[in-house]
Specification:
This protein is an all-alpha fold and about 110 residues long. The chain contains 6 helices and no strands. It is globular and about 40 Å long. Helix 2 packs antiparallel against helix 3 and helix 5 packs antiparallel against helix 6. The termini are far apart. The longest helix has 15 residues.
Length: about 110
């Protein structure tokens, strides 16, 4: 319940300032802390879209992806992020290649 309360607080902050990347990243971090990594991915993506130079958020996204047994959603998000300038494109490309090479249950490949 405390996780949901924190998420609602950040959602209210987003309603006031939808361009602030930090709020999206915080929701993602709360979801990861709650063990809801798959739900965190789109929130990380929204944060990265708003602040592509923030490497900490990108690294947090990649760590969350590493824990997922099914990488399908992760691949779609990474492909989308490849369209954003200012991101580490080499890292995204390598991560996508690693995900494509991994088996569906292999979480060590990312």
């Amino acid at each position: 319940q405390q996780w949901d309360k924190a998420i609602r607080a950040y959602e209210r902050a987003i309603a006031l300032d939808p361009d602030e990347a930090l709020y999206y990243a915080r929701i993602a971090e709360v979801l990861v802390a709650a063990g809801r990594n798959a739900e965190a991915l789109p929130w990380f993506a929204k944060a990265i879209e708003r602040a592509p130079a923030n490497t900490a958020t990108l690294n947090s996204l990649l760590q969350a992806i590493a824990t997922l047994p099914d990488k399908t959603a992760a691949k779609a998000i990474l492909q989308h992020l490849q369209t954003i300038s200012g991101l580490n494109q080499e890292l995204l490309t390598q991560t996508l290649a690693d995900l494509s090479d991994s088996k569906p249950n292999d979480i060590s490949q990312s």
